[in-house]
């Protein structure tokens, strides 16, 4: 699939992906001005103000605004100050390092997602930034090795979309403009630029068909537009061989026309290469050297560009300003990156709560005394560099252009690159578990890396005399090894340092693993031999081995996860500044785990469908079949399915009922509404509702994320079943809760590429509730 889209002048601006009111002006400059996109309430007021302001400006002033400049005097305007950061401000002193979005989404908690993005937005606002580079529904996660996964929500477009909507609402409510990125098909870092620095744009082209674009990659952006997103960053990627930022069909068709996006499109680094090509395709904010007065006026004079489009660009640049209320003049001035400002409030508390809810309990023993939660263990060993602080930190000055390792030798709480957190401090598991040991009168050993010996690295200090016969498995005759190591005179509490020896002497063995990545570099492995050997060595000697994993993206666990001595596994993304405390909260049962996987954990890395693409053309030939959609379709057995996650209590599911909410709506194959921000208005109307009940059958209060999966008639060409609803409910022991999933028209539609519209297929639908995508508990059928 290789399509050449040449840059076109205005006369050729017909929109292939339109399909809507085609008789109306096909000029993209008119989508707002002729009312094609129906604004209402706040967006309509903001549009009126934007139009009135732009009407006072001459072209020089308009060009100043769209190229990032400020105006003074009668037409005062503060430049858009863009700044990176999805889970906290990138490179800024005195701000919070929030839970990374890949972990946050594992909470499946809408309120927490919104609260966190509001808090992140507050810090941006108070530091004087008005346009945030984020939130980030792209990359979606096509490639499990994708370096930017920590910054993004989930490989499932529905879940990612719900998170995106909450994120936009949260950031907007803080009074800053959120810029959803990266639009579109920016699914890997490898070959994103031709050199070792980002001086050129992507060397590869992502090629995908309309169905794939609409149903997967663009889907969560529509949720953002619906929620009031007023800025979108186009990606470094080429799509069908045209730069995303100069792609008419993507920017003007999919984004502005199909989704009714009223705001500004701004480019990622080096993603704009032409003056008229970019502006005519739909880029609204860009380079002051490509968009000079001279160039743009010449274009207007000879028809390569138009006055209408320039006006439209200016309006789109200022619309968000009014929409989020920045025109009230109250935002503090832009802070220097090391300037002290008190912006954090009590965000640390929120971060601890979010991180605790984001941990997923993958496995837990049901044998009394083993597994989690911990109950005042007498002896604990902590293993792995991820248990404690690195030699220097918090975290390191990671490189944007690639990383050199997949394992960080210290506690990892952030991704790298432009999404890297500015951690003000970092609570590690070492600190938090030590605090618990103080309360419980536990004894703790730690061994971060077994390359230490008793004669190097100052080993032997602190805990006692060290060395001796500790760890000698023969030991003095008649005295068991345990007694020797724990009791002999002259030993202090020192053990000869080996994973095996520490493990053998501990009631609980906590092993900590991480995997890291970030912007500019994809991961080179989905599991790590050294780390896995550490787990198997510990488990061979400790019948209560508990593994904690914090990972950039999917982490394969099969080297040890079936070992009976591995009695519990806690798993999440990267948790931010309160990481250690949140992990201890769950380990000790102060927080009952309620997270669920937002991707599938395969048995083997080679089971995942899409490796990193290294050719010039990256064809998304798998279409909509990624992650669980692929595994289900191909009937591949997996280690832990998408949506999986245990609790310290248990839940039973009741019967499922489905009811039609709007018969008239279902009678029409295509939506009939006006285009509003988000797309045709009726795509967002509730058409069906599904109900079930959930009972807490255990002894503890806990929360369950109930999931709804829908199976479609053949005509819709969908995977076996796809996520189309979830509800997180907290239930007391013995109590029952009713769960309702509301299905919008878009949730039961598929993209009809021929009609270029969302369509409802006729036939049999199945609505299945589950505790994961493969732990299905009940279903109901409906024929439409
Ligand atoms: C174009 O859209 C506007 C606003 O919705 C409408 O008033 C006008 O009638 C439309 N024109 C055509 C030719 O459909
Ligand atoms: C545009 O307006 C600015 C500010 O009022 C003024 O300095 C400038 O001369 C004007 N430019 C043109 C081309 O009229
Ligand atoms: C890319 O090309 C495919 C195949 O021709 C086409 O279906 C799709 O619409 C194109 N994508 C975009 C964004 O133009
Ligand atoms: C219009 O003018 C610009 C700037 O001089 C030039 O690059 C472009 O080729 C011209 N286009 C046409 C159609 O004459
Ligand atoms: C514990 O789990 C095992 C394996 O899933 C199961 O066979 C056994 O019945 C469970 N025992 C109890 C007491 O729940
Ligand atoms: C272990 O202890 C026994 C008995 O004291 C001794 O013979 C042996 O050399 C020791 N082994 C090591 C590896 O230190
Ligand atoms: C121990 O440290 C070395 C050097 O940094 C590293 O190569 C090795 O992977 C580490 N071991 C584990 C289990 O992480
Ligand atoms: C489990 O740990 C015990 C020590 O507690 C050890 O004897 C046993 O071999 C281990 N089992 C496995 C499967 O590693
Ligand atoms: C686990 O190992 C410890 C110490 O080796 C032993 O006391 C305990 O009985 C074992 N527990 C189980 C359930 O095997
Ligand atoms: C994983 O897959 C690779 C490639 O197919 C294979 O060589 C390897 O043996 C597999 N690993 C396991 C543990 O099955
Ligand atoms: C993509 O990157 C790989 C690995 O760096 C390299 O071997 C390959 O040549 C690159 N592909 C292109 C099209 O430049
Ligand atoms: C039902 O759907 C139709 C068509 O989308 C719409 O006009 C009507 O307002 C809806 N009714 C209700 C009660 O939502």
TrEMBL record:
KW Hydrolase (keyword) present: yes
Secretion signal, residue range per the UniProt entry: 1-21
Compartments it resides in: Secreted
Catalysed reactions, semicolon-separated: Hydrolysis of terminal, non-reducing beta-D-glucosyl residues with release of beta-D-glucose
One Pfam entry name: Fn3-like
SUPFAM superfamilies associated with the record: (Trans)glycosidases (SSF51445), Beta-D-glucan exohydrolase, C-terminal domain (SSF52279)
Annotated InterPro entries: Cellulose_deg_GH3, Fn3-like, GH, Glyco_hydro_3_C, Glyco_hydro_3_C_sf, Glyco_hydro_3_N, Glyco_hydro_3_N_sf, Ig-like_fold
GO biological process: cellulose catabolic process
Keywords for the protein's UniProt record, in alphabetical order: Carbohydrate metabolism, Cellulose degradation, Glycoprotein, Glycosidase, Hydrolase, Polysaccharide degradation, Secreted, Signal
Enzyme class: hydrolase
GO cellular component: extracellular region
GO molecular function annotations of the record: beta-glucosidase activity
EC number: 3.2.1.21
UniProt record similarity statement: Belongs to the glycosyl hydrolase 3 family.
Protein name (database record): beta-glucosidase
Organism: Cylindrodendrum hubeiense
């Amino acid at each position: 699939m290789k399509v050449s889209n040449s840059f076109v002048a205005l006369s050729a601006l017909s929109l292939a992906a339109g399909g809507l009111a085609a008789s109306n002006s096909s000029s993209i400059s008119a989508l707002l001005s002729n009312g094609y996109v129906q604004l209402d309430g706040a967006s309509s007021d903001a549009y009126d103000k934007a139009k009135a302001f732009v009407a006072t400006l001459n072209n020089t002033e308009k060009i100043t605004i769209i190229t990032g400049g400020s105006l003074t005097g009668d037409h005062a305007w503060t430049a858009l100050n863009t700044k990176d950061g999805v889970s906290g401000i990138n490179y800024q002193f005195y701000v919070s390092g929030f839970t990374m979005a890949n972990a946050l989404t594992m909470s499946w908690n809408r309120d927490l997602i919104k609260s966190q993005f509001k808090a992140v937005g507050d810090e941006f606002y108070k530091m004087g930034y008005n346009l945030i580079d984020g939130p980030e529904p792209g990359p979606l996660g096509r490639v499990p090795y994708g370096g930017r996964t920590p910054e993004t929500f989930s490989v499932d477009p529905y879940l990612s979309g719900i998170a995106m909507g909450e994120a936009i609402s949260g950031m907007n409510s803080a009074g800053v403009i959120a810029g959803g990125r990266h639009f579109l098909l920016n699914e890997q870092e490898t070959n994103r630029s031709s050199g070792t620095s980002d001086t050129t744009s992507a060397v590869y082209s992502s090629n995908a068909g309309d169905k794939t674009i609409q149903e997967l990659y663009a889907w969560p952006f529509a949720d953002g537009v619906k929620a009031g997103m007023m800025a979108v960053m186009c990606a470094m990627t080429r799509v069908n061989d045209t730069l995303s930022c100069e792609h008419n069909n993507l920017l003007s068709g999919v984004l502005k026309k199909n989704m009714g996006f009223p705001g500004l499109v701004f480019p990622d680094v080096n993603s704009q290469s032409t003056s008229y090509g970019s502006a005519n395709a739909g880029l609204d904010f860009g380079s002051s050297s490509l968009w000079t007065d001279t160039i743009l006026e010449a274009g207007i004079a000879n028809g390569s560009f138009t006055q209408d489009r320039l006006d439209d660009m200016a309006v789109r640049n200022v619309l968000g300003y009014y929409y989020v209320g920045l025109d009230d003049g109250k935002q503090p001035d832009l802070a220097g990156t090391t300037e002290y400002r008190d912006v954090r409030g009590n965000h640390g508390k929120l971060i601890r709560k979010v991180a605790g809810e984001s941990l997923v309990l993958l496995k837990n023993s049901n044998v009394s005394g083993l597994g989690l939660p911990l109950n005042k263990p007498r002896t604990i060993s902590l293993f792995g560099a991820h248990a404690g602080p690195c030699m220097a930190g918090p975290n390191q000055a990671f490189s944007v252009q690639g990383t050199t390792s997949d394992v960080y030798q210290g506690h990892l709480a952030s991704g790298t690159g432009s999404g890297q957190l500015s951690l003000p401090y970092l609570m590690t598991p070492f600190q938090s578990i030590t605090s618990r040991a103080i309360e419980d009168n536990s004894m703790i050993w730690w061994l971060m890396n077994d390359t230490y010996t008793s004669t190097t690295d100052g080993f032997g200090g602190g805990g006692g005399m060290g060395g001796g016969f500790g760890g000698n498995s023969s030991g003095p005759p008649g005295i068991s090894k345990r007694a020797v190591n724990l009791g002999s005179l002259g030993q202090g509490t020192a053990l000869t340092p080996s994973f095996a020896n520490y493990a053998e002497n501990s009631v609980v063995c906590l092993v900590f693993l991480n995997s890291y990545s970030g912007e500019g570099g994809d991961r080179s492995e989905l599991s790590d031999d050294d780390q896995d050997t550490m787990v198997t060595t510990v488990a061979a000697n400790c019948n209560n081995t508990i593994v904690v994993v914090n990972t950039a993206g999917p982490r394969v666990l099969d080297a040890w996860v079936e070992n009976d001595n591995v009695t519990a596994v806690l798993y999440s993304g990267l948790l931010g500044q309160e990481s250690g405390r949140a992990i201890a909260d769950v380990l000790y049962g102060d927080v009952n785990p309620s997270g669920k996987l937002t991707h599938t954990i395969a048995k083997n890395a080679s089971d995942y469908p899409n490796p990193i693409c290294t050719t010039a053309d990256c064809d998304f030939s798998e279409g909509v079949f990624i992650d669980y959609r692929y595994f289900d379709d191909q009937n591949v057995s997996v280690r832990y399915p998408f949506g999986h996650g245990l609790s310290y209590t248990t839940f039973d599911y009741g019967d499922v009922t489905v009811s039609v909410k709007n018969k008239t709506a279902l009678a029409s194959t295509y939506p009939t509404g006006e285009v509003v921000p988000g797309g045709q208005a009726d795509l967002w109307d509730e058409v069906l509702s599904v109900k079930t009940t959930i009972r807490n059958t255990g002894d503890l209060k806990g929360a369950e994320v109930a999931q709804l999966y829908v199976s479609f008639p053949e005509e819709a060409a969908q995977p076996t079943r796809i996520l189309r609803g979830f509800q997180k409910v907290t239930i007391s022991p013995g109590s029952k809760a009713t769960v309702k999933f509301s299905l919008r028209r878009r949730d039961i539609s598929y993209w009809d590429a021929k009609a270029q519209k969302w369509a409802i297929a006729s036939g049999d639908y199945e609505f299945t509730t589950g505790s994961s995508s493969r732990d299905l508990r009940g279903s109901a059928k409906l024929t439409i």
